[in-house]
Design brief:
Distance between the termini: 43 Å
Shape: globular
Helix content: 10-25%
Low-confidence stretches: none
Largest sheet: 7 strands, mixed
Mean pLDDT: 95
Strand order of the largest sheet: 3-2-1-4-5-11-10
CATH architecture of the largest domain: 3-Layer(aba) Sandwich
CATH class of the largest domain: Alpha Beta
Order of helices and strands: HHEHEHEEHEEEEEHEE
CATH superfamily of the largest domain: Vaccinia Virus protein VP39
């Protein structure tokens, strides 16, 4: 069975995108959450790349992730910084909490990991359910870069102890009807020329049209929708290579 953000994948993510590494998103989310005084939730918080800087800036943020390996790394980073946020294992479509949040954030296209339409719609309804009256959802989307089936890319990372991790990624499927791609990844950890560990990963990723997603948010009950591009608030996207951010409010 192919894994999903398991041990090697999580380790590579933490090296490639360490805590505080920003695509412009950390600064953008800090600004958009500046007036939020209550609790913020980050579904799919991963290794804490964004959660920890927001926490250190004074934002009352907690998070969850479907990957126990990602959460283990996140908890370690928090302990190093004497931080103790609430972190737990859960899925976006089914998490439950007695708490209502003033904001829920899903940065950097993470929402697209819900490649099945029903689950993505369930997640939006679940977000709305867990937001306070007047609360807001801020969520990033990205467009697929290309549809070259069979395309293979290889990357290499050197660990602190001298081990080497390689990642071979192959685009295996493009489903134009249901709007998702599937990539197959192979992670390998090497030590002095000896293969120590191998991990296979199936990585699906959904895509949406800009106005399509606006309609989906409206149908889910969100209002006052603002669309931004490349973390410039209110600038409508002009190209498919831009990161697209939706900000929407809930009024009950």
């Amino acid at each position: 069975m192919l894994s999903y953000y398991s041990r090697l994948s999580a380790e590579v993510y933490d090296m490639d995108k360490p805590v505080g590494h920003s695509f412009g998103d950390i600064e953008f989310y800090k600004e958009r959450l500046e007036e939020v005084k209550g609790s913020v939730l980050e579904p799919a918080a991963g290794t804490g790349r964004i959660l920890i800087p927001l926490l250190e800036s004074g934002i009352k943020i907690e998070g969850f992730d479907v990957s126990s390996d990602m959460l283990k790394i996140c908890r370690g980073h928090c302990e190093e910084r004497d931080l103790n946020p609430l972190l737990y294992e859960a899925e976006m479509a089914s998490f439950t909490s007695d708490k209502k949040y003033e904001a829920i954030i899903v940065p950097t296209g993470t929402f697209l990991l819900l490649y099945e339409r029903d689950k993505s719609l369930q997640a939006l309804v679940n977000f709305k359910k867990h937001l306070k009256d007047g609360g807001k959802l801020i969520l990033d989307l990205i467009m697929p870069g290309d549809f070259d089936i069979g395309r293979v890319s290889v990357k290499t990372w050197e660990c602190a102890n001298g081990d080497v991790i390689t990642h071979e990624n192959k685009l295996a499927e493009v489903n134009f009807i249901h709007q998702y791609t599937v990539s197959h990844g192979r992670y390998e950890k090497w030590r002095n020329g000896t293969l120590m560990q191998t991990e296979l990963e199936r990585f699906p990723l959904r895509w949406y049209g800009v106005e399509e997603f606006r309609l989906i948010l409206e149908q889910a009950g969100f209002q006052n929708i603002i669309i931004s591009s490349n973390y410039e608030h209110g600038r409508y996207p002009e190209g498919a290579d831009e990161i697209i951010t939706f900000e929407a409010s809930v009024f009950k």
